[in-house]
Specification:
Layout: E1 3-5, E2 13-15, H1 17-31, E3 38-45, E4 48-51, E5 60-63, E6 67-69, E7 85-95, H2 98-103, H3 106-124, E8 133-140, E9 145-155, E10 161-164, E11 170-171, H4 181-193, E12 200-205, E13 211-214, E14 229-234, H5 246-257, E15 264-270, E16 285-291, E17 309-312, E18 323-326, H6 333-351, H7 358-363, E19 365-369, H8 373-384, E20 389-394, H9 421-432, E21 437-442, H10 457-475, E22 479-482, H11 491-499, E23 503-509, E24 513-518, H12 561-564, H13 572-588, E25 618-619, E26 622-623, E27 627-631, E28 636-640, H14 653-662, H15 664-672, H16 676-681, H17 683-695
Parallel strand pairs: 2-6, 7-8, 14-15, 19-20, 19-22, 20-21, 22-23
Antiparallel strand pairs: 1-10, 3-7, 4-5, 8-9, 9-17, 9-18, 10-16, 11-16, 12-13, 12-14, 15-16, 23-24, 24-27, 25-26, 27-28
Helix pairs in contact: 8-13, 11-14
Length: 708
């Protein structure tokens, strides 16, 4: 009788795009620079026969099952596979560079995987690792290209397994298979209802034709013979005369543990994911295979020595080599942009700043009061840090002098009277990064020293609406940036933000100098003021108005052209804006956040503008100064700490309590009466006391002598 060597169909791989997305997250957030192996799982299904309509009725094309990995491969999503599916355990090893990927010792990696399978056979007598696989990868996260190579270690047999050429592998359910339709239905039901998935199994039959499905581990050479027991496995092959790759390690399992009784085995290649309907027959195949061309068992004395293994997958050219998945063309451009925005930030945590809290930064909502030169640069810098929510407030329109200095505007924005700055700036941010939540509000901020006329009544009503909208915006944001042109326009948001306990970042420009500061937070109830060596408050930091002895007043009336324009050196705004944003990031990374203290002067150089870089006024990003005054002409910055002033018109408790108790009426008094804030805080009394003190001074004049 003619015999033929059993040929096994290789197991192809299938990588779902979600697998690469998950690997990207794992690489950026967990693995970073590590190339440690990560446990994953995969599934493969039974092979299928699909009718070929072009070739006529009765003609079928085999479609083999692939070993697929997806997002759930990194978790426990494959713990209960569907009928006709099997779970395979494996590892993925991701390399940091393409050079490391190419130079990897693939023989060593493959042999280690094969040794792991062989060891589990001999020591645990378990089939759990028979279908183990190996996956090596390199992820090019800039171009979203993923290089990968699968290996499915399978043991070779010497001598080879053979099968009679006739009948060969025959269809289950035929008389020659010795398995009836009813018996196959019983097998299907037991596989379907089993609590334990069976990638490999035993089919035991008794003299009464009863069928029972059992685990391979239950095999007994004394009772399980070719007449009573059939060895089964979930077969991903669809070829009529070629069983699938998983059978190879199952045969090696039997030869290693039961060499004297397994030179001849009856096999069923299970390929049925559902019960046949109508005239459709069972797809599973049955055959009896044996070792050696003569069916004579080989010497079993050395079967515990690990046999050779094969199993590296071939690429699409049919050669042994890696494959490449290019996800860029199929990815949503917005999702690509979102991942690219975070890429640089997450790389910071790989080596430099592993403690950096990026989630806190991305969740921070920023309100930019002013969409001019400072506002445009601040917004771009915030986007670079991954801030997702940015809102603009401005009342002006884009003019022809703006686009060259304000990078969010273009020439066409100046036409027809100019577009509203706030809305235009928000649209430009979305053009740069579609994933950002950017909104613009055209809104006038009332100011002290700029009276609100009682008539027409619509002006007062509009002012009330503007104030209410400003309060709402400050309430719904975490950080408020004061980026306006005038000093008095910063007063109202300073009061509201202080009362609502928001972080206020202030940036102001001179010709060749700038001020960047963070306003101090409102003291918590029952807090104790800590004093430094000079008697000033160490933790209760001041605001923009704490150094003033007069209330903010009208600075916009009666100005010449050079006073109406912000005349500064062109590079100054970007320096001040980026400094303000970086200072905000330092504050967010401090455990006390908005109440972070200012850094203490260095003990060794207290007068040389040097600070303790490891003291309480620092975060993982460095110092958290209160104020920074930059001098471009000298290319230097000066750190300044200013204590909160109990008579401040912007942040004192007197002003805040009046705002909280009187609301808009208090604001209206400040807008209409230039002296109201001075009377409220006691600055007028301070001024009077100063004048009286000067009057009481006895000036001593020398008598006689020449007057030179």
């Amino acid at each position: 009788m003619a015999q033929t060597i059993v040929q096994f169909t290789p197991l192809p791989s299938l990588t779902h795009p979600s697998f690469w997305h998950k690997l990207t997250e794992l690489k950026l957030d967990v693995l970073k620079l590590s190339d440690a192996e990560v446990d994953i799982t995969a599934t493969y299904r039974v092979g299928r026969l699909i009718e070929d309509r072009e070739s006529g009725p009765g003609t079928f094309v085999g479609v083999g099952g692939s070993l697929g990995v997806e997002e759930e491969s990194f978790g426990l999503g494959h713990s209960s596979p569907a009928i006709g599916s099997a779970v395979a355990k494996g590892v993925v090893k991701n390399y940091n560079t393409i050079e490391e990927f190419k130079a990897a010792d693939k023989s060593k990696l493959f042999n280690e995987a094969a040794d792991k399978i062989w060891k589990s056979i001999l020591e645990t007598r378990s089939t759990a690792l028979l279908n183990t696989f190996l996956l090596i990868t390199y992820a090019d996260l800039k171009k979203y290209r993923y290089y990968y190579w699968f290996a499915f270690p399978a043991f070779t047999s010497s001598p080879a397994w053979h099968i009679d050429a006739h009948p060969g592998w025959i269809g289950a359910g035929t008389p020659e298979s010795k398995l009836s339709d009813q018996q196959l239905r019983v097998i299907y039901d037991q596989l379907h209802t089993s609590k334990q998935p069976f990638p490999y199994f035993l089919i035991r039959s008794s003299s009464s034709s009863a069928i029972n499905v059992a685990a391979i581990e239950d095999y007994s050479p004394n009772t399980d013979t070719n007449e009573t027991t059939t060895i089964g496995f979930i077969d991903p092959s669809a070829q009529p005369q070629n069983p699938g790759w998983p059978l190879r390690n199952l045969l090696a399992y039997f030869r290693a543990l039961y060499p004297q009784s397994t030179s001849k085995l009856r096999i069923i290649c299970w390929r049925d994911a559902e019960v046949p309907r109508g005239e459709e027959g069972w797809k599973s195949r049955v055959g009896t295979i044996f070792l050696g061309p003569d069916g004579v068992s080989a010497d079993g004395s050395n079967v515990t020595t690990r046999p050779n293994a094969v199993g590296w997958e071939k690429n699409v050219q049919g050669k042994l080599g890696p494959r490449m998945a290019d996800l860029a063309p199929m990815m949503d451009p917005v999702r690509l942009a979102n991942q690219a925005v975070d890429l640089n930030l997450k790389l910071m945590r790989w080596r430099i700043l592993p403690e950096l809290d990026l989630e806190k930064i991305s969740a921070t909502k920023c309100l930019l009061l002013g969409a001019g030169t400072l506002g445009c640069y601040v917004a771009r810098c915030l986007m670079g840090w991954g801030v997702r929510t940015i809102s603009f407030v401005d009342s002006s329109r884009v003019s022809f002098s703006n686009p060259v200095r304000q990078p969010l505007f273009k020439f066409e924005d100046c036409l027809n009277g100019g577009r509203p700055k706030a809305e235009c700036a928000a649209e430009r941010l979305k053009e740069v990064w579609p994933g950002i939540n950017a909104t613009g509000y055209t809104l006038s901020i009332p100011m002290p020293g700029h009276p609100i006329p009682a008539s027409p009544p619509s002006v007062l009503e509009q002012t009330k609406k503007d104030v209410a909208k400003l309060e709402e915006l400050i309430e719904t944001h975490d950080v408020v940036y004061l980026l306006m042109d005038s000093r008095e326009s910063r007063w109202l948001p300073t009061v509201i933000a202080r009362a609502k306990d928001k972080l206020v970042m202030n940036a102001a420009l001179g010709f060749d100098s700038f001020l960047v500061m963070r306003h101090g937070a409102r003291p918590e109830q029952h807090s104790v003021v800590q004093r430094d060596e000079l008697g000033g408050s160490r933790k209760h930091l001041g605001c923009y108005y704490c150094n003033d002895i007069v209330a903010p007043a009208d600075s916009l009336t009666d100005r010449t052209l050079d006073q109406m324009c912000t005349v500064t050196r062109p590079g100054l705004a970007s320096m001040a804006a980026s400094t303000a944003v970086e200072l905000m990031m330092n504050v967010l990374q401090h455990p006390q956040g908005i109440r972070a203290p200012a850094p203490r002067p260095s003990v060794t150089n207290p007068l040389d503008n040097q600070f303790d870089e490891h003291g309480e006024g620092t975060s993982v990003l460095g110092l958290i100064p209160h104020q920074l005054r930059g001098y471009l002409a000298q290319f230097r910055n000066l750190h300044i700490v200013g204590a909160a002033y109990d008579k401040c018109t912007g942040c004192s408790e007197t002003v805040l309590e009046a705002y909280e108790s009187q609301g808009f009426d208090m604001m209206l008094n400040a807008f209409n009466d230039p002296k109201y804030l001075e009377r409220l805080t006691g600055l007028d009394k301070l001024y009077e006391d100063g004048e009286k003190a000067l009057e009481d001074v006895d000036w001593v004049e020398e008598e006689g002598g020449d007057d030179f």
